[in-house]
Amino acid sequence: MQVSPSRSQRQLVSGKVGWGWRQATYPICANFSFAGFLILLGGFGRLFALNDPIVLLIAGLLFSLGFLLGIYTSKSVVEVCRQNTDYAFSQWQVIAMVSYGLILIAGFSNDSPLTNQTFVAIWWIVPAAILIGIASNLMIRSIKSQFTKTNAQISLANPHPEALNVVTYSDQTVLVSPSSLAQQPRQFNSIVLIVIGFFFWTMLDFANSFRAIIVIIFTITGLTGFFTWQVQLRSPEKILQLRFSGLWGIAAEYAINLRPFSRLSLVKLQEAGGELSWMQLAGSTSEITLPLSMTMLVDQINKKEDDYEQLGQTLREEFHLAKQETACDSLGLAHVLLPQGAGILAGTAFTIVGIFALIIFPIDAKLSTANVIAWLGVCVISPDIARFFLKLVAPNSLDSDYRDHRNKLQHWEMGLALLLISIFLAARSTGASLSLNQILPLLTLICGWLSMSIGVCIFAFVRRTPLWHSN
């Protein structure tokens, strides 16, 4: 996110990429350690109950392999924190994850519950070892950095880490983004949430409905939290480009032409005593309200208002915008409150419907290939459906310019294909005498998961979507 495609043709003029990256690795290390040991405890706890030396030997070998992979992967984690960029899975990581997933799906074809549970317990040893390996290497790096002179000088010179990173390049491009400390822990902790969600579904013996609800909340919260944002200011072209990274339809880009706008306004809601505020680009004929996820970054580190003003000050200086602060009542902010309120209401409705569907109706909670593929399909298709419904309830939301040129298929097409495959596998397992009642539990599970996922994604998009209003 900090480096644009033209980085080879320009030089850094001011600012520091990835400020606070060392401090960012501390919470990442803590969360990876907690998740890794939690998964490891669940996996080995089930394997020790079998009292089979061969199974334990295999598990130990897999742990060693995963630990080495974790140490190797930790280098890319450190580099992402240092560059303050979005984490992009490499080709070998994608191949490894797909292969590992196919092995899991193949293991589910076994009809023996005991063999099935043993296989899944062994299967979780490698992810746990990878997380522990990453955390161990990050811990060693942090301990070494405590004794370096450079790190001590940085700590004394900057006792309070900055919330925003402002970097200027020689081509008059300015990049503004949260500092590494402000956004990298959230990005990597979101990966932990996705892993923990799937771990709960495959390993824990909760009540079926409760387990299904907890699983989708963890995974979709992790999916929507796995993002970074950046504001790119291109002064010569008068273009403000907003970039949000993410997986499976979460990513978005907005290119805003600033020529029609002359002011940058900070608008506060009177009824809220000034606690609720929005940053708006204002012109003679139109206004654009910037996303809340950017303007409400009120210094997550040290609670200073200067960091909140830093984004506005940079925008005004680069584009020569006038400063304006106003307070409006709810009627004056109707063009902002109504679409955002409608989005929140829609997200709440979808979430409640999904929860009630999983509680009231019978669901397919047995560990099978069908519901694993359904879980993946729901994660892939939910963001696109959520954007569609947000556009219905908030028509003045700006459309994203983002296009994923790497994939010829759209995300909703891939997600729909996965859901159809899961239904086909469930129908095939029921035998020749197929009826709706036999696949109804899986359909209920898919509908409940999908409804909750759409609701959570709508909540996320409400905070990340600019709003347009004509005066």
What does this structure look like?
By secondary structure, the chain is of the alpha+beta class. Helices cover 60% and strands 14% of the residues. It contains 14 helices and eleven strands. It has a six-stranded antiparallel β-sheet. Strands 10-7-8-9-11 form a five-stranded mixed β-sheet, sandwiched between helices. The chain is globular and about 75 Å long. The relative contact order is 0.11. Mean pLDDT is 81; it is low at 1-8, 154-160 and 298-307.
Q: Structural class of the secondary structure composition?
A: alpha+beta
Instruction: Provide the residue-averaged pLDDT.
Output: 81
- Enumerate the strands of the largest sheet in spatial order, edge to edge or round the barrel: 1-2-3-4-5-6
Q: How much helix, percentage-wise, in residues?
A: 55-70%
Shape: globular
Question: What labels describe this entry?
Answer:
14 helices; 14% strand; disordered N terminus; five-stranded mixed β-sheet; 11 strands; alpha+beta; six-stranded antiparallel β-sheet; 471 residues
Write the layout of secondary structure elements.
Layout: E1 12-14, H1 21-50, H2 53-83, H3 91-108, H4 113-123, H5 125-145, H6 149-157, E2 164-169, E3 173-178, H7 180-203, H8 208-225, E4 229-234, E5 239-244, E6 252-257, E7 261-269, E8 277-283, E9 286-289, H9 292-295, H10 305-319, E10 322-328, H11 334-360, H12 369-393, H13 411-429, H14 436-464, E11 467-470
Parallel strand pairs: 7-10
Antiparallel strand pairs: 1-2, 2-3, 3-4, 4-5, 5-6, 7-8, 8-9, 9-11
